Amino acid sequence: MLKSLRYGALGAVLVATVLVVPGGTATAVESPDISVTNAKAHLDQFQSIATNNGGNRYTGRPGYRASADWVKAKLDTAGYATTLQSFSTSAGTSYNVIAEWPHGDANHVVMAGSHLDSVSSGPGINDNGSGSAGVLETALAYAASTQTAKNRLRFGFWGAEELGLLGSKYYVNNLPSADRDKIELYLNFDMIASPNPGYFVYDDNPAGNGARDDLVSYFTSKSVQTEFIDVQGRSDHAAFRSLGIPTAGTFSGAEGTKSSAQATKWGGTAGQAFDPCYHRSCDNISNLNLTSLDRQIDAIGHMIWNYAQKDYGTTEPPTGNNLILNPGFESGAVNWTGTSGPITNNTGRPARTGSWKAWLQGNGSTSTENIGQSVGIPASATAASLSLWIRIDTAETTGSTVYDTVKVQIVDSGTTTTLATYSNLNKNTSYVQKTLNVLAYKGKTVTVKFLGQEDSSLQTSFVIDDVALTTS
Ligand code: PHE
Ligand code: ZN
Ligand code: ZN
Ligand code: CA
């Protein structure tokens, strides 16, 4: 639940956000006005880089490398740990710039990114100097702030997006799976200062809509109406989404035409493209709406300031006694309720420890199965974690569509809350540990439930072992 207050202080507009986190404690995070003057100066720099390098910042051309070097140098100076990651493309070598704020819990990574390359026909100032200037200025503002990040912030400036999302794909494909699992959120900004702007929020985030909804609430609090857009494979969040990582992003429009209803709510010109210079040589420093840029970068700031402090629970579960009985299923179904069958010593799938486990689904037809156990969480708890080990193998293609799922749920006197959803997108035939914060349920007796659901074809087996609910 987000609640916003707005007040002025010495001429600066601050937004105090009260983020209610699991466990019921509230953390107020004020996000500052991210400077549109500074972001515009970054765009001036991208324009001069293009002007000095044949008019573009295209993959394999000097204007791209100059853009990457310049962004990296700014972030280095601000105190980021940066990497220039090179990879080859049909148009030559390209580079991702990755910048990590070297503070906060590295087990919980919050990422924002933008593509830094232009098409070959122009300087790419709205597409995507705008997103890059916004992400860069937010990163610089965070470094200059007095914030102490609870989580690890990482910013990505992708190469070769215009050749088919090559940089972001290269990045995720070369991340060890343990590192992929640590990314809690990826936010994408591609075209945020379109001259005839719209305010679109990505609505193609199968791993969860929390960040999408936070973006909408933020814009609503600023009296900016939004529309959802299904961007699918059209920008760099797709690479993260295909790994099951929650994503979100914003977009001010490209070649599409603004309708009269959209012109009524957003101003601008109905019947004209959001960006008439999309992928053209005229996508230059004049091809910007600075009101759009200003609003969008403040939204980036709002998300970064708040997600930097979000409570993702502890990765190391508290070391107290395990409140789950028969947690490794070695006594069969003893202490567990639900549908009969999942708790098994069938050798078709390995147990993590011993020979028993809970093998939910795997039949490849429309069906559900569940298991659960009632647990009392002490009222005196100051930390409470539910941890489980899960192995997922699937015959589903693991593109970007969620088919079969297992939900980790808490049933609290008849109200069911889903803490996490794992799917074909999270497939991993090694057991992976997941840890979820359940402190919100202290003082209650709740049922910890695992609910598997399959659609009509292609099996997914969700195998769970060694469940623990510990408190301190
Ligand atoms: N990725 C597209 C480009 O760079 C722009 C775009 C962004 C289109 C988001 C749709 C949605 O050309
Ligand atoms: Zn483009
Ligand atoms: Zn783009
Ligand atoms: Ca076991």
Automatic annotation (TrEMBL):
Any one GO BP annotation for this protein: proteolysis
Residue ranges of every copy of the Peptidase M28 domain listed in the record: 96-301
Record keywords, A-Z: Aminopeptidase, Hydrolase, Metal-binding, Protease, Signal, Zinc
Highest rank taxon of the organism: Bacteria
GO molecular function annotation: aminopeptidase activity; metal ion binding; metalloexopeptidase activity
Coiled-coil stretches noted in the UniProt entry, renumbered to this chain: none
Signal peptide coordinates: 1-28
Similarity comment: Belongs to the peptidase M28 family. M28A subfamily.
PANTHER family, per the entry: METALLOPEPTIDASE M28 FAMILY MEMBER, PEPTIDASE M28 DOMAIN-CONTAINING PROTEIN
Name of the protein described by the UniProt record: Aminopeptidase S
